[in-house]
Amino acid sequence: MDTAYFEGTLQVKKTAGGWRHYILLGDGSHYDLHCGSSLEVQLGEWVPDNEGEHFEARNWLAGRYEANLSSDNPKAHLYIGYAAPLGQGVYVVMPTGIRVRHSKK
User: Fold this and answer.
1) What does DSSP assign to residue 74?
2) At a CB cut-off of 8 Å and minimum separation 6, what does 100 contact?
3) Hey, is 53 helix, strand or coil?
4) End-to-end CA separation in angstroms for the chain
5) Are 61 and 41 in contact (CB under 8 A)?
6) Which segments within the chain are labelled E, that is strand?
7) Count of domains in the chain?
8) I want to staple 101 with a disulfide (CB 3.0 to 4.6 A). Which of 5, 10, 11, 75 is the partner?
9) Which domain holds residue 20?
């Protein structure tokens, strides 16, 4: 694991102040995410093998973390760019449990 990153799985918790997303790190500790922070999601692909196929991790997709934490169903978003011609934000909704990382810089 690269020590220049907080790397682990995306999780959500309810605190006295409301819902929060965080990265569950390999040592069991966690790193709280804040809206507007840079974040990367690890992508992968299904690869054929002798037993059918298996999933292999590949490259990282960089974006900006934002969230909708105002309901009982909080959502984490990864903004990945802006669409032409009007500049609307393009984002994906991230499920909990996926591998993410945030730069320590």
Assistant:
1) -
2) 7, 8, 9, 10, 23, 39, 40, 41, 42, 94
3) strand
4) 16
5) yes
6) 5-15, 18-25, 30-32, 38-49, 52-68, 75-83, 88-94, 99-103
7) 1
8) 5
9) 5-103
Residue located via tokens 């934002």: 66
Query: How far is the C-alpha of 105 from the C-alpha of 101, rounded, in Å?
Result: 12
Q: β-strands 30-32, 38-49: how paired? A: unpaired
pLDDT of 14 over the 80 cut: yes
Which residues have a Cβ under 8 Å from the Cβ of 77 and sit 6 or more positions away?
65, 66, 67, 68, 91, 92, 93, 94
Amino acid at 25: L
Give the tokens for residue 75. Answer: 């959502």
**71: three-class secondary structure by DSSP:** coil
pLDDT digits (tens, 9 = 90+) for 36-90: 999 999 999 999 999 999 999 999 999 999 999 987 889 999 999 999 999 999 9
CA pair distance 69, 98, nearest whole angstrom: 18
